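Reopening this ticket.

The earlier resolution said the output was attached, but the attachment link was broken on my side. Pasting everything inline this time so it's all in one place.
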Amino acid sequence: MGARRDVFQAIADPTRRAIIGMIAKEPVNVNTIAEQFDVSRQAISLHLKILAECGLLSMKQQGRERICEAKLEKLNEVNEWISQYKQFWNTKLDALDKFLKNNEKLK
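Inline output:
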């Protein structure tokens, strides 16, 4: 059995991030997505499969077209992970700011 895919794996690749950006605006058919990249249709299909497995997109059939729609709720997981580091660095930078202001007063 393969490793479970997660949202961090999905956003690790620049092509997948670009696809997320495209479909976040509006649902897009697979052909339109593929036309935007200088890689094979098969490579785009693999990217779409990974995004779907990670829960970041859903695909539905409309006539002869497959339409990709963003499901961005999973990005909250990334936001929560980043937030802890954002808080850490904000605390450090606030302390540095205070230190620099105190040293300025001593001059």
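Reporter confirms the inline version is readable. The mean pLDDT is 91. The longest strand covers residues 57-62.
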